[in-house]
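ugh finaly. both done.
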Amino acid sequence: MATTAEKVKETTAAEEVDLTDGFHLVIDALKLNGIETIYGVPGIPITDLGRLAQGNGMRVISFRHEQNAGNAAAIAGFLTKKPGICLTVSAPGFLNGLTALAHATTNCWPMILISGSSEREVVDLMQGDYEEMDQLAIAKPLCKAAYRVLHAEDIGIGVARAIRAAVSGRPGGVYLDLPAKLFSQVMEAAKGEQSLVKVIDAAPAQIPGPDAVKRAVDVLKGAKKPLIILGKGAAYAQADEEIRKFVEGTGIPFLPMSMAKGLLPDNHPQSAGAARSTALLESDVVVLVGARLNWLLSHGKGKQWGPRGSKKFIQIDIEPKEMDSNVEIAAPLVGDIGSVLGELNKALSGAPKPAADWVKTINDKKEANISKMAAKLGKNSSPMDFHSALGALKQVIKERPDAILVNEGANTLDLARGIIDMYKPRKRLDVGTWGVMGVGMGSAIAAAVETGLPVLAVEGDSAFGFSGMEVETVCRYNLPITIVIFNNNGIYRGVDKDPTGRDPATTVFVPDARYDKMMEAFGGKGYYATTPDELKRMVDEAMDAGKPALINAVIDPAAGSESGNIGNLNPQSVVTKKK
């Protein structure tokens, strides 16, 4: 039988054992894998996780709504190639973050949504726990992978699996479910440290086969009117030098999709952006670099592309299932963009440049369209229209090529894509594949946090409404974000009427709203611009100051068209009911 002295010794030894818990293991697992920032909204059961993460040196950016925090995490993933982390509470908070997770997955951006959840034994018996919901089952169809961790010793492997799933192959969103009881589980610190996993080579290079490269080279060498389309996947890849070598080495005209703008400057002599319609219609071989033939490219068919079978496609994508998704791909190149272009550049060394008449056709059309647009952009009218206001902002970005442009809206987005030139990669962030509104403030905040660069967020008044309360977040963290709201009093335009005369029209907002006063309420700087000259001066002043600012840009309420440039996707009734 142990003596009293021996018992005291045993107790003292036990007390000297260092302990850790689920909270600290989650933080340690993230930090071990180079993740230093969390975006989220605090609450039950993850409040202390945010506090402890901040205390352990991580940057924790707290938002006013989980969807906006999720959008920030998604863009962080695009900018850094590391999973952006969004942390939410259970049930309603999880559901709010789920929209952003699906958005990240659709756009192929790495993101991990970490949500606290109710205990399994209560949820599975549906006994009515606080915010009870089977979150894992709900998340699975909307993301690339979903995992649940039940034991503290599995946190390290759970975080590692989530990171690898998010960034490997085609990147996407991952859900990580952490029930409340997990956080308070305790284990020896030494064993906890041993349980952590550092992910090695999370996104290994995927090199295309020699036969695939030769096939693509043969197709390209047979082209008379070749075209390169750069998608946001090319921007995400950060294979900027190989992309430049490919474009300039081949001499082929290139067309950037909106978030690929700036991979090569929009004023590059080979840019076909201002001759998009001609380039798509008349090309005979199209090289897709990280671009998908989805709705943004009319699925690769239809009158925009000319007669069926009039062109061949070479597609570079890391996902084999993407090939032949809409039209036949003559030369599929499966692999990561850097590796594929590296092989193509070697194989195409010394290959002849495109025919001079094809290059001249593109350049002539480009110059004609630029000249035609110049008059619209140069007006100093009051009230402003979209073209004159965007003309002022075009000059701002030209003078500040390192600034990041965030853009969303209907007309505000569609017209800015073609008007505002970009000069450096990953400097234009917008609504992506889904065309979803409300990503603006989350994207702007993440861009400022992840890069430290000044951000210009150009928002339609409708799009801003989805995430506008985050101006308080911008002010709270004192971020160098200048927001410009194109205020035309409504969705598309602000002049529609309710036929009954009872209510405002469904697309109309409060006329002459003062969004600038909203910014001032939180300590930011508000401006009110009525002409392009005023707008340019105010944006310059705000961006020079490097502080939170919002410019309310007054746009003619009659300006704007239904759904911007995609009005064909908005069906309209042709039935007239008799009274």
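ok and the 2nd:
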Amino acid sequence: MRWAVVAALAVLLALPAVLSSYAVTIFILIFFYGFLGQAWNIVGGYAGQLSAGHAAFVGVGGYTAAMLSIEAGLTPWVGMFVGAALAALLGAIIGYLGFRFGLRGFYFVLLTVAFAEICRIAVSNIDAIGGALGLYITFTGDPRQFQFRDGRVYYYIALALMLAATATAWAIERQRFGIYLAAIREDEAAAEALGVNALKYKMLAMVVSTFLTGLGGTFYAFYLFSLQPNTLFGIPLSVEIIIRPIVGGAGTLLGPILGSFILTPLAELSRLYLGQGGLHGAHLIAYGVLLIGVVLFLPEGAYPRLRRVLQRSRLAPFSGHRGSDERSHAAPVAGHPRSEPGDERSHPAPVSGHLRSEPGSRPPPQKTLLVVRGLSKRFGGLQAVAGLDLAVEHGEMLGLIGPNGAGKTTVFNLLSGFLTPDAGDVSFRDRSLVGLPPHAICRLGLARTFQLVRPFPRMSVLENVRVGALARHPHALEARARARDVVERVGLGAREHVTAGTLTLAERKRLELGRALATEPTLLLLDEVMAGLNPTEIEPIIRLIRGIHASGVSILLIEHNMRAVMALSHRIVVLSFGEKIAEGTPADIANHPKVVEAYLGDEYVRAAPA
């Protein structure tokens, strides 16, 4: 691949010597839109934040550099960085307004479109910068003014811009920054639970993206020698920017470039042949048809499909030598069908009879790790949690049980920062957690899993766990090594390169455990890690949890599988309608009259071992 890139670059550098001036112009547009697409890709592809008014930052950069050149005599080679800095400042403001207040999806799209429209109207009404008629730049041919008589110079500048943006994306992709952006794109809440400061990294992505886009504004202004408000700040230019990464493969390194090589010639051909009959915007019709095809047949874009085809062609000569061990992951063991998503059950369930039913020996008394006092949370007329008190000691495994709707997961959300309590306090290692965001709580040493498994589906098993490892090991290579150890520990070593979205439910449960464990927690909150699993799948999870606990990690466990709870827990707290109704050893809880009435039932007591 490295030599292929070098060869392609050598060809591109030599092309102007043999191309016509029209062909050079086409390549300039390919490179320029590839550059803008790559700049947008940082926030829209890697981070998954769909800025649909990104053309506004082209306009900000272009107008700033042009006005500094015309009015102050500042060379555009300097003015372009001033314009890029102003674009980045405005991008930071728009990003903060959107991200700080939780705008996602269509709401963030509308915010960026509204910003572009405000810029268009404002610029159209300021006569000092040309008003509605636009701003025109006098051609002098002076290279110091970013003007060249030979069009091939623009070719090399546009190529350099595209390569610079691609190098920036390449560097981001291989650092913690890029890994975190991918996790945020896949599942922001799950990323926060693994120590990712989503606001910080989305803001950084927005600033880098808008800075690069602002740089492109200077090239736009001094290549075309005019700036028109309706063109620069309008939706069509934003569509030109966005559609290239989407067609090529958003969130991939070469997707925006491939998309530009596909779409830019297509736009020129459609304008040339369809526009002759007075059909204005013909290229947008061609875009629409192509986009429909991409959505239907290449939903991830052209580059990911091309990469898979090339990988299969390289592996094809060896396909006949693959052993049967590879196929073993694809078929369930006879008599034990694989669990499927949606099978998770939330009622008390026994496990196989040979599971040890006595809890592990209680740890010696030590300093209390977690203290909860008077914790309360109401949702409208529902009191989800009411005045809860509990404590977890160092080295303890505490079970939290109760019927559906008892408030167990709400307690976990309050402890991990996803909800703010109405009253009460949570103290972890003598520090209050109330008001802290999830990523800060995770970095203090409190990690959690989710009741409904939340893998990053388009990332591999190893990449999923590496997100958690980065909380303690900021260097990507070190985090990868730590993640590989954790993947082996949770029994997914043979599946580390498999995409998480293709795992079975039991494997995804292990992955949830592995991601949380990779953050190196002091206290681990496990939310129904056995729900939906059959007895054969539960027993290894039990052993895994015991191993984690034996390594020195304290555990707070929510589980409906009562035999497992009794086998694992040193103490058990029982909730009913948000209130604690009992607390004690497993033996005490199994025979507690309120617990039997509210949750276990007489059948469980009769079936429980003596």
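summary for the 2nd one i guess: The chain has two domains: 22-231, 368-607.
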